[in-house]
Every structure is written in structure tokens, then in C-alpha cells.
Design brief:
Elements: E1 2-4, H1 10-24, H2 30-42, E2 51-58, E3 61-69, E4 72-78, H3 87-99, E5 103-107, H4 111-119, E6 123-128, E7 139-143
Parallel strand pairs: 4-5
Antiparallel strand pairs: 1-2, 2-3, 3-4, 5-7, 6-7
Helix pairs in contact: 1-2
């Protein structure tokens, strides 16, 4: 089931984010993760800046979530216990049904994420040397064909 996120989901989604990042973002040190944690908790998961959607395989247990800003996929995180079970694909399909062709940024140093998006029909549209916070983590800008 895919549904809109609620304020009651915040702590669960923060746990999903934390477990997912630790499993896929090996280029981040623990201090980087801790520095990002309040931003994710207080901005991303506050639900004001992004349209948040939750995927549950079991009622009441978020397996994955995504955040949309128009047709820009700003966040997509899957709990590692649900890797390779279709969660990401289901969320992408839902986003496409809502918004049409999507764009997404992915850390260049996240080969699993990049492979997922490329296999899902995205193509490279550009590259930035630094992330949006100015840190030295290159970002690949991807888009879908219209």
C-alpha cells in the first residue's frame, strides 16, 4: 500500500532513512550522517517542503518512502530489509502516475542508487562537483524522457 505520510510516521521514516543511508552511502562518515540527521528529521520529514509518500508491505510498518517537489524526486529511501523486493519500483511508478516524467539527483558515490535509476529508465542530464550543501560529494542529475 502507498499512502501519504503523516506526522505520526516521522520517527519510523527517520529510521528507514538512517538504515538506508548506512547501507548505501558508504562515502559518508558517521559524523556526516549525524550532521544530516536533524535536516532530514526537521526539514525533509516535516512534510512541508516535500510531498511525502510511504510504502507499506505490512500495515503500520513503513518499508520505504519518497519525497516529491513537483516532478522532482527529492528523496527515495528503502529500508534495507526490503531491498530488491520492488519497493523502489512501486514508489517510482506511483510518482510517475502522479507527476509524469521525473527528475532525480543521485550521489555519484552511491553506485546502487545510480544503477537503480539507470535501470528504471533515467538518463544522465548533468553533474555537479558538490552537493546542494556545498560538500564535496558529486551529484549526478538524471531525468526521464518526456
Amino acid at each position: 500500500m502507498i499512502r501519504r505520510a503523516t506526522a505520526a510516521d516521522r520517527e519510523h521514516l527517520l529510521g528507514v532513512w538512517l538504515r538506508s543511508v548506512r547501507a548505501t552511502h558508504a562515502f559518508l562518515g558517521e559524523q556526516d550522517v549525524q550532521d544530516l540527521l536533524p535536516v532530514v528529521r526537521d526539514v525533509v520529514l516535516a512534510g512541508e517542503a516535500l510531498e511525502l509518500w510511504v510504502l507499506e508491505f505490512e500495515a503500520g510498518t513503513p518499508a520505504a518512502f519518497m519525497g516529491l517537489d513537483g516532478a522532482a524526486l527529492e528523496a527515495l529511501f528503502v529500508d534495507p530489509s526490503h531491498f530488491r523486493k520492488g519497493a523502489g519500483k512501486q514508489l517510482l511508478a506511483h510518482a510517475r502516475a502522479l507527476k509524469g516524467p521525473l527528475t532525480v539527483d543521485v550521489n555519484e558515490q552511491n553506485p546502487q542508487g545510480l544503477a537503480f535509476y539507470l535501470q528504471s529508465g533515467f538518463v544522465r542530464a548533468g553533474r555537479s562537483e558538490r552537493d546542494s550543501a556545498g560538500r564535496p560529494f558529486p551529484i549526478l542529475h538524471l531525468r526521464e524522457a518526456a
